[in-house]
Amino acid sequence: MSRVRTVLGDVAPGELGVCDAHDHLFLSSPKFRGQELEDAAAARAELMAFRAAGGAAVVQWTPYGMGRRAADLPVLSRATGVTLVCATGLHQAVHYAPELLDALHGRLAEVFVSELTDGIGTTGVRAGLIKVAGGFHAVDAHARWTMTAAAEAHHATGAPIAVHLELGTGALDVLDLLCGELGVPGDRVILGHLNRSPDPVTQREAAGAGCWLAFDGPSRAQHATDWRMPQSVRDLAEAGFGDRLLLGGDTVLAGARSVDGGPGMPYLLRRVRPRLVAELGAELVDRILSEHPGRAFGAEWG
Hints:
Structural class: alpha/beta
Radius of gyration: 17 Å
Number of strands: 12
Order of helices and strands: EEEHEHEEHHEHEHEHEHEHHHE
InterPro entries: Metal_Hydrolase, Phosphotriesterase
Number of domains: 1
Keywords: Hydrolase, Metal-binding
Family: Belongs to the metallo-dependent hydrolases superfamily. Phosphotriesterase family.
CATH superfamily: Metal-dependent hydrolases
CATH class: Alpha Beta
Strand order of the largest sheet: 6-7-8-9-10-11
CATH architecture: Alpha-Beta Barrel
GO molecular function: hydrolase activity; zinc ion binding
Binding site for Zn(2+) 2: 131, 164, 193
Shape: globular
Largest sheet: 6 strands, parallel
């Protein structure tokens, strides 16, 4: 039976409720110095704001070595009533010190499996997905290493694999590797940031492979992608791929939180949802927010 692995234990997919399928409560990286998500009080306030807007669950894609603060997540989940899912995995090399990456060579899949099954460090929190990342219009050597380990961990556990597509590019190369060469079923792969490169041909081909398409934003750079997104989602639905869609907020920097003056997690429900309802109708949008995340992130855990 499929279950979603949350920070408070496994739950049935239908128990998630309205879900932000890609976001971050905590995140730190050498690339984002001075804008790290490190404030637990701000994370709690953001979750409360999301809850007040009608949200019930958040999937945090922050992977290994990027300040996940896994020990804080059960506390936040209980305090706010918002279900949380935590990630293992590894982002692009730019987000890590070289010595950390060197220490993981030869044991990356082992780390992923351990965090999915035994828990993250001594926290007792088990990860519920594997987050990896592609390169710009390519699968570079680092991405091939991390995706190979992710596929091995998937085959050992059943865990879904969520992929950061750099500026929304490289989706088909990622699928050639994960689903073709490495044998991961399409419906176990979630492609993030497809809205950042609104290519309808690529989006339809990716959906045709059976994977999940995550439209997560709003964009921090190319704002044309924001007004194109509803049309892209409608086109996919009209092409028969309405059952492959996910929505997320992807709050990466501290200034993007709603409690710090940015759009934050509530934006997904306050602004994105009504715009999509106008394009798709309430029934499909409700399924994208409430039904699809449970299917995408559920697994028959091995």
